[in-house]
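From the pipeline queue, job 12 of 40. The input is one protein chain; the requested action is below.

Action: predict structure.
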Amino acid sequence: MARYLVTGGCGFIGSHLVERLLAAGHEVTVLDDLSTGKSENLPEAAALIYGDVSDPQAMAEAMAGQDGCFHLAAIASVERSREDWARTHQVNLGGTINVFDAARHVAEQPIPVVYASSAALYGDNPAVPLSESSEPRPLTAYCVDKLACEHYARVADRIHGVPVTGFRLFNVYGPRQHPASPYSGVISLFASRILRGEPVTVFGDGELVRDFVYVGDVIQYLTAAMAQPMPGAQVFNVCTGTATSVNQLARLTAELLEKETAVTSAPPPPEGDIRVSVGDPRRLMAEFGFACDTSLRDGLRKTLKWLKTQTP
């Protein structure tokens, strides 16, 4: 049994991770400011500290006595990063530095950190499928901060001896995902509208392509990286390598819900959107020995089953 801290543990991915760690017999503490996460997502066996990763003292106190830290807390809203640039930077980059700094100070030996980066940092790079060596082309403040987190992870590893592993998450989906998610909330939105008998709306021609990854597969990599910390502050794509268009997603969602639905088109957002985002999972599979093997059909079926319990 180990003691782990999960920042952002009341959120979508974090709460699934907490459940998995508790099921494995570990002791779990969560640091969360509940700005987007929900305390009801947290199992009773987990200890909740209401706090902010951008507060160095709160971060250090939460880290004390832990054997490792999973850092998932972030402000992931691109719109929020435009409206409140300084605050999102303070949380997304400043908070991550606080995590690394606390990890090097709270014990005789630095404790390992596994953190969430983002595939969004590839931006509009057309070199699909995107590999870890593909050039980052961040288009937003959020993406720039995520890329900077990876650079600071190398500082934490090389200068301060903190074992750090990062994962560039593609479009993660599953139960408990908020419809406002900037990456896969489209699934929740489509399902909610279809269940209410309303048409779904796609932007442009609906042929934006994404790489959808089921949350349960993501959790396997997070826990595997913590179980065997690796040197060099390595970063891995977490993706399936499978391309799915928004139109395909809408059709599959309606099929699984056994509902007829109309699809309407809306103009694309003024700033545009990345046309294709699909990852190359080969390095991930070579390092960990397993793949993201939940098919979109199976993952959607689990997600929709949960969503039905949430929709009046």
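Job complete. The chain is about 40% helix and 20% strand.
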